Amino acid sequence: MENKLNKHSILLFLALALGLSCAYWGLFFLHDHSWLPFNPSSDIMGALRGYGPSIAAFIAATVIYGRKGTSELWMRVKMWRIPLWLFVLAVLGPMIGNLVLIIIAYFSGVELQLNSESVPLPKLFIIFFFFAIVDGPVGEEIGWRGFLLPRFLERYGVIAASSLLGLVWFVWHLPLYVATDRFDITLGFFFGYLLNNVAFSFLHTWFFVRSGGSALLAIIFHTASNYFVYLAVTLFPELDQSPMTQPIYHGILVIVAIIAAISLWRNPHYMIGKVDNPTAINAVQS
Question: Average of pLDDT values for 259-283?
Answer without folding.
Answer: 63
